[in-house]
Amino acid sequence: MKLKSLGNKISTFSIICVTGQMAAGKNYVCSQLEKSGWHATDLDLTAHQAIEECKEEILAAFKGEAESSGLSILDSNGSINRRNLGRLLFKNPSLLARQESIIYPKIINLTKDFIAQNQKVIINATVLFKTPELIKFCDAIVFVTAPFFTRLIRARRRDQLPYRQILRRFQAQKKLLKEYKKTGKQIIFVRNF
């Protein structure tokens, strides 16, 4: 579906989730919808804020594992080194689940505040299905897709991560669409080539 068609299809909705795998083009779709009056909140940025606000809990939970892996999860300026934290978490699902249990309550509250302050809301989130408290607000899911190699090139250019780490994240998101189908929400596909 093209973006112009998307605007018509979602015109009666109040809250949508824009999602898709890493580097599919979620931010681009959100930026185009914002031009027509939608207000987007990027849950990656909300997660960054939540990580900083939950810094002490995160340090207590992961400092030992990080040191064992030769990683420092604290930058010299005292903030969480999200890149190193990601290296630690994305290779161990149980550690990722532990981090989510720490930051998700904060993310939920920050997002609810954004919804309360705005109309025509876009929740830009890869794994919103993990927070039923937020998915229930959505009228529909806009699932952005792009070819594998296009996403790989975009992710490498944007994040400057090693290919191995990008591929690990791609693998972690392999069943993303299946998870969104379980929500029972209408899914609208946008192909972003």
Helix and strand arrangement:
Elements: H1 3-9, E1 15-20, H2 26-34, E2 39-42, H3 43-53, H4 55-68, H5 82-89, H6 93-117, E3 121-124, H7 132-135, E4 140-145, H8 148-159, H9 163-172, H10 176-181, E5 186-191
Parallel strand pairs: 1-3, 1-4, 2-3, 4-5
Helix pairs in contact: 3-6, 4-6
Could you characterize the architecture of this molecule?
With 193 residues, the protein is α/β, with parallel strands linked by helices. It has 2 domains: 1-38 and 120-193, P-loop containing nucleotide triphosphate hydrolases (Rossmann fold, 3-Layer(aba) Sandwich); 44-118, Rossmann fold. Helices cover 55% and strands 13% of the residues. The protein contains 10 helices and 5 strands. It has helices spanning 3-9, 26-34, 43-53, 55-68, 82-89, 93-117, 132-135, 148-159, 163-172, 176-181; strands at 15-20, 39-42, 121-124, 140-145, 186-191. Strands 2-3-1-4-5 form a 5-stranded parallel beta sheet, sandwiched between helices. The N and C termini lie close together (11 Å).
Key attributes of the depicted protein:
193 residues; alpha/beta; Rossmann fold; five-stranded parallel β-sheet; 5 strands; 55% helix
